[in-house]
From TrEMBL:
Domain TonB-dependent receptor-like beta-barrel: 295-731
InterPro entries documented for this protein: Beta-barrel_TonB (IPR000531), Beta-barrel_TonB_sf (IPR036942), CarboxyPept-like_regulatory (IPR008969), Plug_dom (IPR012910), Plug_dom_sf (IPR037066), TonB-dep_rcpt-like (IPR039426)
Gene Ontology BP annotations: siderophore transmembrane transport
Region forming the signal peptide: 1-20
Listed name of the protein: Iron complex outermembrane recepter protein
Organism: Bacteroides stercoris CC31F
Alphabetical UniProt keywords: Cell outer membrane, Membrane, Signal, TonB box, Transmembrane, Transmembrane beta strand, Transport
Membrane topology: Multi-pass membrane protein
One Pfam family linked to the record: CarbopepD_reg_2
TonB-dependent receptor plug domain sequence ranges: 134-237
């Protein structure tokens, strides 16, 4: 740990001289060059509050107040671009010339953009870019999506994106994973503020541990995409952008859910507050969440289908604008969680017939320094992030007193990124991006009762370089990434290429190619132990296991149009991924009463398909969004997975069809009606012997999980609002009805929606 502390101290020492060299360090000079103005809705003429007003290429910005007005004072002299932006509106930019002692009045009229054509993303190239002009396709899950679908955690909100599906993989502990384009969870790279500190251990339960309360938006990029992110992003990248303070505000909310209409309740309380100085040079956003969920037993056998949860999260994100052109950002989060599944939940786990009990303590954070050159040619980012996880666990059955374990994990990343903007590079303007990154993960997993000790240290040194030629019509991105993984004896080069063509402002055509790899290391499923047939199942790696490689291609068309008051968007994307030396799991029998699965290299696999998504909005009155994915996932040769069941060529848990929809109707301003749903087609699922006589592959039925929510806002006092909401999730009770029962059950035989029909009510106070 000392070396990481020394690194952080050294990084700060390196940044201080750079900050000291700035002519303006913590406050702007008294130039008396000011801008005042207001922002109106173009259609209604109403003043718009909390619209972001910023000088591009600097750290200077503010938001309009409750009356829709703003004031920027003591600005630097020169020519700048002033920009007004907000979620749900088109961004407007205009040139301004600032002179000492002069005050400009700049008023804006913003036009609604319900389908987010001009929304900004950072996952495409690690720089703030309009989604329409991004070199790769990026989908966004914003706070409205989490609220309208009553999703208190990351795992629930991710379902409402094309090509993305979250599934539950354990009947006892509720282990979940996200699949992009049908590929397993470890094929997806999960980032927090663009940093890969989401380790294998975090991936076991992390999707359900990250509260929506800390999320500004989630950017989902399918496929390998940019070379700036790790080469393990084979299926795609999920980038969790945490909330940044923009104005003084606060919120307190509570939601009560009755699971299955029973006495099993899910209580979720969240709060947050944002504080910003008068000159917007510093800000602090704090958040907290407390969640308590009772265990749920669907079939009355005394064994839970959903585990008991106690979760507390607290954290903050802050910024300090060290000058007009530099900014320091710091983020921290802490999580405590207890989860328990099985039977006899009020007794110690070793007195139960089946018990999976896990206690987590997680601390993580990051530090980032951004510098923007006054001439807008240079941008430099230096960053470091770390996360420490401490886990006490019990995975056992039949009152085994030796099934306790202890796991610790420390993930650290440090790096820098430099961007140079060419006015013209060969044939058009371009951004050249180069960077270095170091990633270290120390994992210790001790299951002394099972005589299993894992000590894994992963060191990855990376260098990346890419150039993006771009204008309003074209974007050509060529890049590559060099990775040296300590568990692989050679350097791996992963090229990336993207092409964007906009024949008009409303049509975006994209082609993409990427390659990647997965190293022979422990993944999230290795750190989860299943109860199967009264014993436990563990994963071991074959001695000659080598890295898995991938080649991915995609092509998409993203089209927008306005028909009077209607805005529509239609997206179609074809994808193909080829996996070589693919990792597969095979049952190789029992050892000391433990079922052993071996991870080895298979023959290869391919995943191909088509995703389609449509959006429609009528003013702010009605919005509809829906998507469907059609795909095939096959091994090159049938892969043996059991000693008693036939080999299978189809990849397990990959339905050929799945999709989602959301709809919101606002007949009057205080009232909001929301419908949402997901569809999961039939898929092939493994069912292990124990409760049944022998292993078998089961073709599941399909599921349509629909929810409804009604919310009404009341004005309590000036800017203080009260919202009351209620609704039903999984209205048609589309839920698995053939769970295994008793101590011999296969806890991994679980599929379909994560919860049965549930009723909820909520209250929220905000200012």
């Amino acid at each position: 740990m000392k070396k990481y502390i020394f690194f952080l101290v050294g990084l700060c020492c390196a940044l201080l001289p750079a900050m000291a060299d700035q002519p303006e360090q913590l406050e702007l000079k008294a130039s008396d060059a000011n801008i005042i103005g207001h922002v109106l809705d173009k259609k209604t003429g109403e003043h718009l509050s909390y619209i972001t007003i910023a000088l591009k290429g600097t750290t200077i910005g503010t938001v309009t107040d409750a009356t829709g007005h703003y004031f920027l004072k003591n600005l630097p002299e020169g020519n700048f671009v002033l920009e007004a932006s907000s979620v749900g509106y088109k961004t407007i930019s205009r040139n301004v010339s600032l002179r000492k002692g002069k005050t400009l009045e700049e008023n804006f009229e913003l036009e609604e953009d319900a389908v987010a054509l001009d929304g900004v993303v950072v996952s495409a190239n690690r720089s703030v870019t309009k989604r329409r002009l991004a070199p790769t396709l990026v989908n966004v899950v914003d706070m409205k999506m989490f609220e309208n679908t009553n999703s208190p955690t990351l795992s629930q909100g991710l379902n409402f994106q094309p090509g993305v599906r979250v599934e539950t993989n354990c009947q006892n502990c509720g282990f979940q994973q996200v699949r992009i384009n049908g590929l397993d969870g470890p094929y997806t790279q999960i980032l927090i503020d663009s940093r890969p500190i989401f380790s294998a251990l975090s991936g076991v339960y992390g999707l359900e541990q990250i509260p929506a309360n800390m999320i500004e938006r989630v950017e989902v990029m399918r496929g390998g995409g940019s070379a700036l992110f790790g080469s393990s992003a084979i299926a795609g990248t999920i980038n969790i952008i945490t909330k940044e303070p923009l104005r003084n505000s606060g919120q307190l909310a509570h939601t009560l859910t009755s699971i299955g209409g029973s006495s099993s309740f899910d209580n979720n309380t969240s709060l947050n507050a944002s504080l910003v100085t008068d000159n917007h040079r510093a800000g602090l956003y704090v958040f907290g969440q407390n969640r308590h969920r009772d265990a749920y037993d669907h079939d009355g056998d005394g064994y839970s289908e959903m585990p008991k949860l106690k979760n507390q999260t607290v954290g903050f994100r802050s910024f300090l604008k060290t000058s007009t052109y530099s900014k320091l950002t710091f983020e921290y989060h802490h999580l405590q969680e207890f989860r328990r599944g099985g039977n006899l939940l009020n007794r110690p786990p070793h007195e139960a017939d089946i018990a999976e009990q896990i206690q987590h303590s997680i601390n993580g954070g990051g530090l980032k320094f951004d510098y923007f050159a006054p001439n807008e040619k240079h941008r430099l980012t230096v960053y470091t992030s770390a996360q420490h996880t401490d886990r006490d666990s019990y995975y056992g059955s039949k009152k085994d007193q030796n099934a306790y374990g202890k796991t610790t994990d420390l993930t650290f990343i440090g790096g820098s990124q430099y961007v140079y903007s060419f006015g013209k590079c060969l044939f058009m303007p371009a951004d050249l991006t180069a960077g270095l990154e170091y990633n270290r993960d120390n994992l210790k997993d001790d299951m002394w009762g099972y005589n299993r000790y894992t000590k894994q240290t992963v060191n990855i040194g990376s260098a990346f370089l890419q150039n993006e030629w771009k204008n309003e019509k074209w974007s050509i991105l060529l890049g590559g990434r060099l990775d040296k993984h300590n568990l692989i004896n050679h350097v791996i080069f992963s090229p990336r290429a993207n092409l964007r063509f906009n024949p008009s402002e409303d049509i975006n055509l994209r082609l993409s190619y990427s390659s990647g790899f997965r190293a022979p290391q422990a993944f999230d499923e290795d750190l989860h132990i299943e109860n199967v047939g009264g014993t436990v199942s563990m994963i071991e790696r074959a001695k000659n296991l080598k890295e898995e490689k991938s080649q991915s291609f995609s092509a998409s068309a993203d089209m927008y149009h306005r028909f009077g008051a209607f805005q529509v968007n239609f997206l179609v994307e074809g994808f193909y991924t080829r996996l070589s030396d693919v990792f597969v799991l095979e049952n190789i029998g029992e050892r000391d009463g433990i079922l052993i699965k071996e991870r080895r290299n298979g023959s290869g696999a391919k995943v191909l398909g088509l995703s389609m998504e449509g959006k429609m909005a009528y003013l702010s009155l009605f919005q509809l969004q829906a998507g469907v994915t059609l795909q095939q996932s096959r091994y090159d040769e049938p892969e043996k997975w059991s000693e008693t069941a036939p080999a299978e060529k189809k990849i397990f848990r990959t339905p050929n069809t799945y999709g989602y929809f959301t709809a919101t109707y606002t007949p009057i301003k205080p009232l909001s009606l929301s419908l949402s749903g997901t569809y999961t087609g039939s898929m092939l699922v493994q069912h292990m012997a124990g409760y049944i006589d022998k292993d078998v592959a089961v073709n599941t039925r399909d599921f349509f999980d629909m929810g409804v929510k009604v919310a009404y806002d009341f004005k309590l006092y000036k800017s203080v609002d009260l919202q009351l909401s209620a609704g039903v999730q999984n209205v048609f009770n589309a839920y698995q009805n053939d769970f295994d029962q008793g101590v011999e059950r296969d806890s991994g035989y679980i599929y379909g929606p994560a919860a049965p029909r549930s009723y909820f009510a909520g209250i929220k106070i905000s200012y």
